[in-house]
From TrEMBL:
Gene3D superfamilies: Zinc/RING finger domain, C3HC4 (zinc finger). InterPro entries: Znf_RING, Znf_RING/FYVE/PHD. SMART domains: RING. It comes from Tanacetum coccineum. Keywords: Metal-binding, Zinc, Zinc-finger. The keyword Transcription regulation does not apply. This is E3 ubiquitin protein ligase RHA1B-like protein. Residues 22-65 form the RING-type domain. SUPFAM superfamilies: RING/U-box (SSF57850). PROSITE patterns: ZF_RING_2.
Length: 110
């Protein structure tokens, strides 16, 4: 669920010069559709299409495979992940040991 917090939901009618259709379902967008815009690559999809994609444990854009979480937000995202897991207070790793954070991110459901 945390990753969804990073990906804004907007109305299709609010977008400037958007594509005509969703690359996941291939249906054309309609003005009232809820759209998720990826922050790294700026691709857009129906909210339900991208949410379903994430439900299958995908962490990258369905179109270009760019990671959902931008590099500049990765540390903050990892902290939220630890807090959500309930074990954040027990982790006392040093700055050089990021491997534990990466492994947790790989196995947690978003």
């Amino acid at each position: 669920m945390l990753i969804r917090e990073l990906l804004p939901v907007v109305k299709y009618s609010d977008l400037v010069d958007p594509p005509d259709s969703c690359a996941v379902c291939l249906y054309e967008f309609e003005s009232g559709d809820e759209i998720r815009r990826l922050t790294n690559c700026r691709h857009i999809f129906h909210r339900t299409c991208l949410d379903r994609w994430m439900d299958h444990d995908h962490k990258t854009c369905p179109l270009c495979r760019t990671m959902f979480v931008p590099d500049d937000l990765q540390d903050s995202f990892n902290e939220k992940l630890w807090a959500a897991s309930g074990i954040g207070e027990y982790y006392q790793g040093d700055d050089d040991d990021d491997s534990l954070v990466v492994h947790l991110q790989d196995v947690m459901e978003f």
